[in-house]
Amino acid sequence: MNRGYDVGKGGRPSALSISPRLESGRKKLLDAVLDAVAAGMFSPGNPTERAGRRRMGMDITWVTDRIAVGGGIWTAENMAVVSRTGVTHIIDMQIEFDDTPLAEKHGIAVCWNPIDDDFEPKPAAVFDRGVEFALSALEENGSKLYVHCAAGVHRAPMMTLAILGVMGWTVESGIKLIEARRPVADFAEVYVRSVEDFLQGRR
């Protein structure tokens, strides 16, 4: 299965051979970043000024009735929006920002599981941490889980795919579900392979 990009030596993408799938994923990510810039999410100035400009609203996609995937939260106002949707637990895949202080006020439990979106293989420990948190969260009556990264294109969909896989979905069906609900989601080959290796290890 070649879902992401052409692989060169050492399992890394070839500098001269980029598959249409990866190019599409990069375009989706670039579009998401440009939308964020246009909304004032990223801008020059001191941290207080930048935080004040990150009021772009929430980008949440419900994949099931209890699991959502999407982009960064960033502000107290956005965390309040997340709380009003009924979210009780968050898996934050951002290396850029820890949601924990914002979530405390709303009684939302956070698993900060930070990784780079670097198109490198992800270790099983990353998925173990997120999946165990998710399964524990979903055992609670009325709980809802929000899995997010900065743009909701790579890291959050990857983690959501691992959660669905442990819940009994095949990798292919999980990808189809996530992509159908959230078209901006993109599954690079190296990330899919990381999920598959993790699920194989659990079996």
SS content category: alpha/beta
| Main β sheet profile | 5 strands, mixed
Please tell me how large the radius of gyration is: 17 Å
Could you name the ranges where pLDDT drops below 50 across 5 or more consecutive residues?
1-20, 36-55
Kindly state the mean pLDDT as a whole number?
A: 82
**What share of the residues lie within helices?**
40-55%
How many helices does DSSP assign? 8
Strand content: 5-15%
Oligomer: single chain
CA(first)-CA(last) distance: 20 Å
Categorize the overall geometry.
Answer: globular
Read across the widest sheet, the strand sequence of neighbours is 1-2-5-3-4
Secondary-structure element pattern, one letter each: HHEEHEHEHEHHH
Number of extended strands? 5
Short précis:
This protein is α/β, with parallel strands linked by helices and 203 residues long.
Secondary structure elements and pairings:
Blueprint: H1 20-38, H2 47-52, E1 60-62, E2 67-70, H3 76-84, E3 89-94, H4 100-104, E4 109-115, H5 124-138, E5 145-148, H6 155-166, H7 171-181, H8 189-202
Helix pairs in contact: 5-6, 6-7, 6-8
